[in-house]
Automatic annotation (TrEMBL):
Keywords: NADP, Oxidoreductase, Pantothenate biosynthesis. The keyword NADP applies. Catalyzes the NADPH-dependent reduction of ketopantoate into pantoic acid. This is 2-dehydropantoate 2-reductase. It catalyses: (R)-pantoate + NADP(+) = 2-dehydropantoate + NADPH + H(+). One of its GO terms (cellular component) is cytoplasm. The keyword Oxidoreductase applies. NCBIfam families: apbA_panE, PRK05708.1. Residues 176-290 form the Ketopantoate reductase C-terminal domain. It comes from Pseudomonas fluorescens.
Amino acid sequence: MSTPWHILGAGSLGTLWATRLARSGAPVRLILRDAARLASYQAGAGLTLVEHGVEQTYRVPGETADSSEPIHRLLVACKAYDVQSAIAQLQHRLVPNAELVLLQNGLGSQDAVAAQLPQARCIFASSTEGAFRDGDWRVVFAGHGYTWLGDAAHPTAPLWLDDLHAAGIPHEWSTNILTRLWRKLALNCAINPLTVLYQCRNGGLQDHQCEVATLCAELAELLECCGQPAAAEGLHGEVQRVIQATAANYSSMYQDVANARRTEISYLLGYACQAAARHQLVLPHLQQVQTRLVDYLAAHGLASN
Ligand code: NAP
């Protein structure tokens, strides 16, 4: 039997991956937060994927971190701020050369996991797929996209990419995954915080073009300084295109705040500001947006880390 895919976190992306892998016949195990969540899951019919309005439910076996089966391959699908503690709970089950796929947005959580698990292979992912939960154990596949996977330490692609192919998960092995993650972080920093501060859809930033341009210039300077010149190329142009193409959408950070959910700010704008400080780079506008956002979150009773 082929190596099971253990999936940590049955949220939007975890469910999106679990259901597609299960549909293709790959062995999948879902690792849930605790016994109460496991009981809730087991009381239902399984995991439901809603795609193009059609629902399909898959009986994916669930377990908690206390289960005993060794883990060879782990898809980490928690939010960036939950990753380290979630992994700590099951660390004893990881075989020495276990492979982890880290789906988190932003930067910072991946390096933290790599330091936490020096013997494991950590594969970083950057995805443009979009999904949201419309109920417990249900996910709506809202935006078809692509997932880039890569390992900054070892450029060789793993053989199990065949599983993703069989599951119909569009993907590509990337030898410059850090550049992709930095670029996505920069796009996020130029758009998402401002949509929260101005309480607008992405298209609303067309009324704040100067501010967007200034942030892009500072972000490009940061990327150059961090050894990521390719991620800086044409940044402002791409930000403008994204704002136009997604004018009617609310950014993920806007939606988190609107739903009183914790944001991943520390792994996005917070990470950018820390990197600037490490390089003694003065980026006043970026820093000011960070301060305004932290204040905004605090004023709305939300964590700012
Ligand atoms: P999500 O829907 O909030 O799912 C996170 C899941 O992690 C939740 O089900 C949560 O459990 C679970 N979890 C947290 N701590 C856990 C623990 N200790 N043990 C087991 N499970 C635990 O988040 P998401 O939207 O899938 O996002 C995951 C990551 O992917 C984020 O970094 C996000 O930025 C990135 N991403 C998401 C999308 C998207 O469209 N959703 C797209 C690209 C990138 P409970 O259900 O019990 O709370």
